[in-house]
Each structure stands twice: as structure tokens, then as C-alpha cells.
Amino acid sequence: MASEPAVPVAHASAFAQASADKSEDKPADKPPPPPTPARDPNPDRTFLDGPHSRMRELQLLWRAVRDFVRGFRTLHFVGPCVTIFGSARFGEKHRFYPLAREVGRRVSLLGFTVMTGGGPGLMEAANRGARDAGGRSVGCNIELPLEQAPNPHLDYFVTCHYFFVRKVLLFKYSFAFVGLPGGLGTLDELCEALTLIQTGKIQNYPVVLIGTEYWKPFISLLREMVDEGAVAAADLDLLKVTDDLDEAMKHIESHTIGSFGLRRGRKPKWWLGET
Questions:
Q1: Within a 13 Å sphere around the CA of 61, how many CA atoms are in the beta-carbon half?
Q2: In angstroms, how far is the first alpha carbon of the chain from the final one?
Q3: What angle is formed at CA 123 by the lines to CA 68 and CA 138, rounded to 5 degrees?
Q4: Structural domain count of the chain
Q5: How far apart are CA 222 and CA 244, in angstroms?
Q6: What is the pLDDT of residues 218-248, one digit of tens each?
Q7: 106 lies in which domain range?
């Protein structure tokens, strides 16, 4: 068998040197591309963070429409509601929890469905109070980065992606609003109710604040705004501030039942998949 021809030593050395030079001339590896940012888990922030592609805008719009449709179908037959605002942070051992539970019970005894944001704390207490009285209890929950689960005292609830959808649902079905002690979210919803009434976007439904001492700084701020001319003095009449639950319930009853022609809701139609 013929052997392979030998490579001359000089040629072999030149070949090795050329290979080394070629290796040295090889460009350095490019840095890896930056990681693709993960989709923001907060859908409200995604909705409000500026322009998107047309397809992405359409997807965001569709999600909002889907929230509205789901909310309308869930709450259409719950009857006239009173929406109760209050802190999610005040648990069962907090001094305001029994108060919120009693408010929910009394509102239910007036014949109203108790509606809350559907979460824990004073919202849970109000829904629980409605259940104590054998009344209807509903909630409009919200998806948060730290999940807020619906409380266990709800007959019906809807979970929204967007805060603005949740707000529409909280106001759409209500004939009165009760503000229990709370934080920024409670203030936001309370001021929204007052603004809608003040501007005539909804009728002059009663707004009751429970807890005169707690709400004193807020009322003082409103009076300073009146002094500066930023708020009309008559706007203070939109609020009823009291610690007396009998007085609060009488105010709600006298400014709702009979004033707005309240009647029972329509019966659901089984052939539309309504319950």
C-alpha cells in the first residue's frame, strides 16, 4: 500500500505559522444582545406608557372592552347598590372592621345590594355584614402585581385588569356611596364620586363619610379650598359626615329610595347565558 507523500519540513512550518496568524486575526466575539425586556405584569402601566403598534393598541382596547362586557353581564341583575369604600389594610382585629361590618349589614337591611372593591380589609367587612343580614354582596376586584384575591363573602364578583374599568363598574350600579376610613385608594374613589356628582355626570346621590375624627383633615382641606375659591361652598353639602349609623342610614334612605324611582332589576334570561 502506497504511503502518503511527506510534507517538507519548511512547508509544514509555514503552514503552522499561517494557521496561527489566521487565528490571531480572527475578530473577537461580539457582546451578546441585550435581553428582551419581559412584558410588564402591570397592565395599567402598559396601557398608559405611551404609543404602541396599532396591533398592540387594539389588543389593549380589546382587553378593556372584555372587562366591561364581563362586568356588565355579571352585575346587570344585582339590583340597586350602595358602594362602600374603605381600606384593604385594616384586618379583622382593627377597630374599624366591626364598624364596616355593621355598615354593610345596615345598608343591606335598607334593601340595597352592598358593593365594594371586592378585596380584603374593610371591603371584606362590609361584604360580610351584607351576608350577616341575608342580603346581596358583590365586588369589583382588581388585578394587582401582588395579587388581590376576592374576599370570601361575595355572591358575585368581577375581576378587572384596569382601574378605570373597575371605577366605571363601582359607580354605574350605585345610588349612594359610603366612605369608611382608608388610604389613597379610598380617597381616589371618594373624590371621583364627588367629582361625578359635582359635574352632573351622575345624579346627586348621597355620599356619607363614617368617622368624623378620621375625616377631619380631609374636611379641613376642603374648607381651605373653599376659602381659596377652588371649591364652591355648596359642594360641601354633597357630603354627610357622621359617627351615628342611624343618622347615616336615614340620610341614605331619604336621598335614594323614592327619589330615583328604584325598582327591582330585570330577571336574567337563561337563553342568553345569564344567571
A1: 8
A2: 92
A3: 45
A4: 1
A5: 22
A6: 999 999 999 999 999 999 999 999 999 999 9
A7: 58-260
The one-letter amino acid at 136: R
Q: What CATH number does residue 230 fall under?
A: 3.40.50.450
Strands (E) in the chain, as ranges, are 81-85, 113-116, 137-142, 156-160, 174-179, 207-210, 239-242
- Helices then strands, counting H and E runs in the chain, come out as 9, 7
| Whole-number Cα distances in Å, 100 to 37, 82, 85, 111, 121 | 43, 13, 10, 17, 9
Q: Evaluate if pTM is beyond 0.85.
A: no
Cell 345610588, residue located? 175
User: Cα(31)–Cα(11) distance, rounded to whole angstroms?
Assistant: 37
pLDDT one-digit tens code per residue, 60-76: 889 899 999 999 999 99
Structural domain contains residue 266: no
Q: List CB contacts of 271: < 8 A, sequence separation 6 or more.
A: none
